């Protein structure tokens, strides 16, 4: 059974942020051809290419994965594509009995509930 989501880990080791992102949510744009030079250029020069890798889902069910390291490119990057996207925090904790422990990551994030930021890096936690 194929899951319609992929699990992404972003953030730093002290405060990692894990997200579920639907497959197909990101589309490769501005790729002139599916060859080595075009892929290198896309990974190095396009904002959408600031990712660890891509997965192609073929009609016959085959998957092809290409990571930056397969092309000899550096990872992790200081500024990735997902880190540059707007972020809204919606925890919905009012729907549950929850006693916030502000020493935990979730407790710190709960202080930011209903806040919006221009990009992920703008979320400052204690």
Molecular structure report:
- The chain has 126 residues and is of the alpha+beta class.
- The chain folds into 2 domains: 1-85, no CATH class; 86-126, no CATH class.
- It has 2 helices and 6 strands; from the N terminus they run ββαβββαβ.
- It has helices at residues 36-45, 105-110; strands at 5-11, 16-22, 53-57, 63-67, 87-88, 116-117.
- The longest helix has 10 residues, at 36-45.
- The chain is elongated, with a radius of gyration of 17 Å.
- The termini are far apart.
- One of its GO terms (biological process) is RNA repair.
- Its EC number is 6.5.1.3.
- InterPro entries: RLIG1.
The profile of the biggest β sheet is: 2 strands, antiparallel
Termini separation (Å)?
A: 40 Å
Radius of gyration, CA atoms, in whole angstroms: 17 Å
Order of helices and strands: EEHEEEHE
Give the fraction of residues assigned to helices: 10-25%
How many domains make up the 3D coordinates?
A: 2
Average predicted confidence as pLDDT: 79
Poorly predicted spans: 1-5
- Class inferred from helices and paired strands: alpha+beta
Query: Shape from CA axes?
Result: elongated
Major β-sheet strand ordering: 1-2
Strand content: 15-25%
> Count of DSSP E strands?
6
Task: Classify the oligomer.
Answer: single chain
Give the helix tally: 2
GO molecular function, one term: RNA ligase (ATP) activity
Organism: Engystomops pustulosus
Cofactor: Mg(2+); Mn(2+)
Enzyme class: ligase
